[in-house]
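for ur thesis appendix - Decapping nuclease. copy paste whatever u need, i formatted it the way the template wanted (i think)
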Amino acid sequence: MSSRKRALSDVDILPDPKDKDQRLAHKQPRLDSSLSPPLHVSSSLPYPSTSQSASRAIPFQRPLPLISFSYTNDRKLEFSDAAMRYYVSPPLDADLGHGYERWIRRPEERGRLDGLLRAISEVRRRGTGDPVINIVSWRGVMTKILTGPYEDRDGWELNVMAISGTLYFEEFISDARLQEKENLTPHHRMQTYYGYSFESWCTASRPDASSGWGGDVDTNVQWCSVVKTKLGDTRIVIGGEVDCVRDRYDGRNDTMLELKTSMTIRGDRDKARFEKKLLKFYFQSFLLGVPEILVGFRTPNGKLKTTESFKTLEIPRMVRGKENAWDPQICLSWGERFLTWIKSNVESGNAAAPGSVWRVKFTPRVGVELASLSEEERREVEAGEDRIGFLPKWYYTEIQNASSPSAQRSGSAVQPEQSRSSGPSTPINRTLPAGWQI
Ligand code: 0WD
Ligand code: CA
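the 3d part is after this line
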């Protein structure tokens, strides 16, 4: 059994005829017909400049893991590390097409927050920590937000809700976009598979296993880590998938490893493209506190040639001054601006219409728009499921009960999530990073 998934990295830069279109697309943001119709915009935020350095450094707190969980092969979530994998070095010349016909492929779905919300609920139930949370998001969404200043091709949309001072982000994927993702060309699908296959060649269910195929790819199976962190004054809980660990796992993120595949670098142009790609690699791992990224370089038809390990925190220095240079401070500064802008608009809007669902639309090189959804659009988000907006009803009820005055009076372990003003809270446990209330 192997938990393997889409190599977003590989899909980003394709070594095929599509490449030409992609180069063109760099000149022009993609007019994506599968994005939703125009919004009745209530506020907008202009696209940031990347030519000036960030006016001030925005601190990002070292992510502290709260809990981990596994999705089993029948896509059940359990609070165990059953799906966790150990790194083993892959055989060189490994065939990344191996086992393609046996790939058990999880269908594309909406980026619901349910798994992450169950994890947050479990953290509270255990009473091991009750973070004050301003934002709840999957890691992939936070990566898209932070890398926005350098994204010149792909737009995205989010659904946003605010309850008791906490903002929840869900990626909004229209039905048309979902279809597009589901119906990849055979070529594209194979490229996607190379990434999963690399993970199988690199991992095993025991730390002392010998090198070799780690088991057929089943993209239902995933191991996820949930961390708390802070960007500027905004406290964020982020969940994301982790590929494997080196040797051991003791609840910390310092042995975690991210696996990626990329085309072998044959010249300056390839090198520049790879350095641009490193921005996404960097933030993806940075956000969960994953300290190492192992890249498998492959041929166009899926032969593994070499691997190279990158220390996440050293990546920005590697690209500094290069042709496709990027500056993480610009991203963090944009991220802070983006989050505070959403928070202030959504909270003031919610005062007029409590329980609203909001839509945020990012257009490369243009900016971001925010709008409150109509009743009909809101129903589309609920999709006939047992939800309030995109939040599952059980979770909604849980936080409503937690923030009721009687729950507060009884000193229940389940505390309301509150938005706090800036400044570190008084840490009760001094071994924890400042800024988190336990
Ligand atoms: O199905 C969806 N549309 C989404 C699913 C959207 C957003 C999240 N999720 C799920 C993920 O599958 C996972 O269970 O939420 C959980 C956390 O995801 P994440 O860590 O926030 O996702 P991200 O950082 O975008 O990607 C991490 C890995 C990717 O690895 P690479 O090395 O390629 O970046 O998760 C995989 C992907 O392999 N992944 C997916 N696998 C299958 N279907 C998908 C997807 N749609 N999205 C990410
Ligand atoms: Ca990966």
